[in-house]
Amino acid sequence: MSSSVLERLKQRSFDNPYQEAILSVLVAADQINRELESRCEAHGITAAQYNVLRILRGVHPAGHPRSEIIARMIHVAPDVTRLIDRLERLELASRGKSESDGRLSLTFITPKGLALLDLMRSDIEHVNRTIAKHLTEAEAHQLATLAEKVCSITE
Per mean pLDDT, which of 6-15, 77-86, 115-124 is the most reliable? Predict the structure, then answer.
């Protein structure tokens, strides 16, 4: 039984092992999200904005339509259009039309956005290194496999 999760949630026990697993995953995800959010805020963006920039870097120099960005996001933001608007105001992303379909609006990462991701690389890798101090590679693979199993049941 996870005594640290019980203590954090100020609970005496779990109803069953599945509740323990769910709550443990949620607590762990929250800790990682808070760390990533803190690292992103130090660079003047949110974790959701970082996520979009990361997605756009993956197809650079091409861009993605909004629907594809949403499909690839880790945490789907409630208003991706406004999120992209903010990235445009920060000159980290730009919008343009698809060459093959002029009706389709695409979002592109700008050179300033690429530079920011390069600048942030060590901060983001710090989160990975922190986890690596607590998990072996085999445990990380096992965790990924278990998380994938959980994700597959919710689709």
Answer: 115-124
Q: Six-digit token pair at 28?
A: 């762990």
CA distance 46 to 39: 9
pLDDT digits (tens, 9 = 90+) for 13-26: 888 888 888 888 89
Mapping DSSP to helix (H, G, I), strand (E, B) and coil, where does residue 43 land? coil
Structure tokens at 13: 């026990």
The closest of 98, 97, 117, 95 to 107, measured between CA atoms, is 95
- Are 143 and 150 contacting, i.e. CB atoms less than 8 angstroms apart? no
Domain boundaries, the chain: 3-153
Domain 3-153 class?
Answer: mainly alpha
Relative orientation angle of helices 47-57 and 80-89, to the nearest 10 degrees: 80
- What gap in Å lies between CA 123 and CA 35, rounded to an integer? 10
Which residues are bridge partners to 105 per DSSP?
97
Global pTM value: 0.85
Contact between 130 and 32 under an 8 Å Cβ cutoff? The reply is: no
